[in-house]
Design brief:
By secondary structure, this protein is α/β, with parallel strands linked by helices. It has nine helices and ten strands. Helix 7 links the parallel strand 6 and strand 7.
Length: about 290
């Protein structure tokens, strides 16, 4: 279908959760001198202008990052993410934020000379923006091809260190199971990698199917250390629209659960209301 454009949603509450976690994972990876691969299956444009017609049409960032950027008493675990956004918008405030990074933009902040970046994107417009964004970014490889297959083709990385982000638009119902299966197959090839799978909460039964598939296949494939993180603005609904967002993470950094125990209540307080809720669930122990 390829109709999805993340430019409409950049900086919303789902991005806040996903990118704050990605920031913590990449920060952890850079604490060792040895290089690693960052692999992004659905990269998008790389960087987004919040002042353009797409972001302004929905205004989703106003209920996401814009509510946090000038807050005081930010939790320590959330501060690296907020600092990154602030550095991109040095002269902005909540009413005129200009730039918001996609996942490649988050990664660019952390990637070192000894690391390598592999980005996949199918959309004909976004691949052009992504290529422009990555101009002169050394050891960055961009391909306009299926990201699921692209991930599998790069594993295991020579360094035996890697972070894989699978972040499909879920335009197709099959993406829910396809994303899980890709991580299972990836784990068979590279069991020590960190895998981050983002999902929207649109229909709860689809999320539960992912959870069952993960736990059942994880048991059969001896997968250890599976963490689920979720933040919902409102209760589950049969009406159209995303009520929440979450992540399944295989091999998360050891301190990530504790860090998100600090971040999630703060996100509920600042972005949510009395109907909001969050969850941190260790589905499979280490």
């Amino acid at each position: 279908m390829l109709s999805y454009r993340h430019a409409f949603h950049a900086g919303n509450f789902a991005d806040v959760l996903k990118h704050s976690v990605l920031t913590l994972v990449l920060d952890y990876m850079t604490r060792k001198e040895k290089g690693f691969h960052y692999i992004d299956s659905h990269s998008g444009a790389g960087m987004y202008q919040l002042s353009n017609e797409y972001a302004q049409k929905t205004g989703e960032y106003k209920d996401g990052i814009a509510k946090l950027i000038n807050e005081e008493n930010i939790p320590e675990a959330l501060q690296p993410y907020i600092n990154l956004i602030s550095e991109l918008n040095p002269d902005s405030n909540t009413s005129d934020l200009d730039l918001y990074p996609g996942s490649p933009g988050i990664a660019k902040r952390f990637i070192r000379r000894q690391d390598s970046t592999h980005l996949f994107e199918l959309h004909s417009t976004d691949i052009k923006h992504l290529t422009d964004f990555c101009y002169r970014w050394k050891k960055t490889f961009i391909k306009q091809r299926d990201g699921y297959q692209g991930v599998l083709g790069l594993l295991p990385p020579p360094s035996r260190r890697g972070v894989v982000l699978i972040d499909p638009p879920y335009e197709l119902k099959e993406d829910y199971q396809k994303a899980v299966n890709t991580i299972i197959k990836s784990y068979k090839k590279f069991a020590t990698g960190t895998y981050i799978l983002w999902y929207p909460v649109v229909k709860r039964e689809l999320v539960e199917e992912m959870k069952r598939a993960f736990t059942n296949k994880a048991f059969n494939n001896n997968i250890k250390n599976l963490l689920q993180i979720e933040f919902c603005l409102s209760e589950d609904s049969d009406e159209y629209g995303m009520t929440g967002t979450g992540l399944f993470i295989v091999n998360p950094p050891w301190q990530l659960a504790a860090q998100m125990n600090e971040v999630l209540p703060y996100l509920k307080e600042k972005l949510g209301d009395s109907n909001s809720n969050f969850m941190l669930n260790q589905l499979i122990d280490e």
